[in-house]
Amino acid sequence: MKPAQHQRLRTKPARRGSALVVALTTLLIAMLISGLVFRSLLSVHRQSRTSLQQLQAHWLAEGAAERACSQLQASSAYAGETWRPLISPASGGDAQSGVAEIRVERPADSKQVHVTVDVRFPDDPWQRASVQRSFEFAEKSPSSPNKNENQSSQEKAP
Fold first, then answer.
1. Where exactly are the structural domains of the chain?
2. Containing H/E element for 83?
3. With CB atoms counted within 10 Å of each terminal CB, which end of the chain scores lower, N or C?
């Protein structure tokens, strides 16, 4: 074998190996970028779901406050309740249940009724939003309900 042929045989496998390293490195970089994009999309999806749950909990708290007002107008003996409405999403899909705990306190020295509403949506131990509302209500006024606007609103997501 001539020395030129011997050197040509030696350099060919090195070229094949370097092409394989370049191909694997390119594939690794593409997989890393794909993983980062997927992780970002998953994070945005979770944030969107949490935002939707907080908004739904807010509206459920508003509905529970209105329910408490109408119940107090209907009966002065109303002491509160645990309300579990079934809520169907507008986009279709499965209906979810929320929990609204309505508490009514009647101070002895006042004609005002103190109402507290605690809401959890959905009724899930891990992924839920909770909202708390409290307000004063003038008991049994014949004209219109006097729902004072000194509401304290605390919204939180676990």
1. 3-156
2. strand 80-83
3. N
